[in-house]
Design a protein that fits this description.
Layout (H helix, E strand, L loop, with lengths): L11 E3 L8 E5 L2 E5 L1 H16 L5 E4 L4 H13 L4 H7 L13 E5 L14 H9 L5 E5 L10 E7 L3 H8 L26 E3 L13
Antiparallel strand pairs: 1-8, 2-3, 4-5, 5-7, 6-7
Length: 209
């Protein structure tokens, strides 16, 4: 049987450069890194949620290309097939976590990285308020990437550079507009090419894109 490679698959994902403008921080006794603007937005959003009696905590933030590769290699060593691995993991270089602007969010009394998170008051709060802080749900149901629904995975697009980081080169996505009320007039751009990547809809609670 011919081995299927990540760049021969059928979902269009943008390629992301590994962010080097990162700030170390601690969230509920765990250490993470984020781009400064994403971190500032996260702190403000968490404080606003707490004032409404909502618990937010980060499960995952920045992840390097090397870390992404290690996740995949560790699974291969466990005998997990490449096809199964790439159902739940983006190849190194194609994870939103490389940007330092994507976060996986959890809350009390719900299992991390499970679809049941959508039933939490936290998710309802995020759907209503996250946009005010520049965060968008990356993979809603029937998303244009064909990636499985991930109610916990949010990306920061609150300034023009961040928006372009995610949308430039992404098939099926309109380019950011100068008049977009959610985007500040930061005119920096980032290069992002794309691959086709097969990601069936089976779920695995570990190491998401």
């Amino acid at each position: 049987m011919r081995r299927r490679s990540a760049n021969k698959m059928n979902i269009h994902l943008p390629r992301f450069s590994e962010e080097n403008r990162l700030i170390d921080f601690v969230d509920e006794d765990r250490s993470f890194q984020l781009h400064p603007k994403a971190l500032d937005a996260w702190i403000k959003m968490k404080e606003a949620a707490e004032s409404d009696g909502i618990n937010l905590h980060i499960i995952s933030a920045f992840r390097s290309v090397a870390q992404q590769a290690k996740i995949i290699e560790d699974k291969k060593r466990k005998g997990i097939s490449a096809n199964k691995i790439f159902r739940v993991n983006a190849p190194p270089g194609y994870s939103e976590h490389h940007t330092g602007r994507a976060i996986d969010i959890g809350t009390q009394n719900y299992t991390d990285l499970e679809e049941e998170f959508e039933n939490s008051n936290t998710f309802c709060w995020l759907i209503t308020h996250a946009r005010q802080f520049g965060f968008r749900l990356s993979y809603p149901r029937d998303n244009p990437y064909g990636i499985a629904y991930e109610p916990w995975h949010w990306r920061y697009v609150g300034d023009r550079h961040s928006l372009e980081t995610f949308y430039k080169g992404s098939r099926g996505q309109a380019p950011p507009s100068e008049t977009d009320p959610d985007v500040s007039p930061d005119s920096e751009t980032s290069d992002s090419d794309a691959i086709k990547f097969n990601r069936p809809m089976d779920e695995d609670p570990q190491d998401r894109p």
